[in-house]
Amino acid sequence: MQKKVRYSHPAHFNYETLAEICDILSNAGKLNLTARAVVTYLTNQLKLKGAALMLLNRRSKKLEIAASQGLSESYLNKGPISASRSITASLEDGPVAIFNVRDDPRLQYPAEALNEGIESILSVPLVLRQKPLGVLRIYTAEPWEFTMEDITFMQSVALMLALVLDNIRVSGAYKTSIEALKDLRPPIRRAKRTLHE
């Protein structure tokens, strides 16, 4: 028996949902807390199997999980995620929608995805100033025919995430620079008072 194909519901992919995500991001502080809040909200609001934010490690060229929701530890620890092999086009050419994890050669770990109960995946790159930062992925438990509206929505979320991540990075670097300058600055010594004062 063929599984029922799911399509997104307009009540989920709309400006209200986007506004809620903006509100989450506007209160961004620490990277891990912000990322976890976004993937949790997406999973619950869009009724997904799960969601994950993966950031690119420029040294190892691997994608490292920054936050996830709805995915088991065994799936998350299935092995190193190569940026050059795992849904390759997502980092190079843009969003990648996988309808059936069973027969898509772009997946690095298809058997593990099946064991996890995943049917479809949408992977959207986080890119800022033409530099890839990572990917935002959503996973469904039933076949999902992603529409252009779905993809555009997720691209908007990914862009906002990229901006916030960059802001957190710059803010952290700024704070580090200020602290370094304070350490280098010689201590201010109070002048000794004379008898004439």
From TrEMBL:
InterPro entries with a match to the protein in the record: GAF (IPR003018), GAF-like_dom_sf (IPR029016)
Record domain GAF: where: 30-175
A Pfam family this chain is assigned to: GAF
Full protein name: GAF domain-containing protein
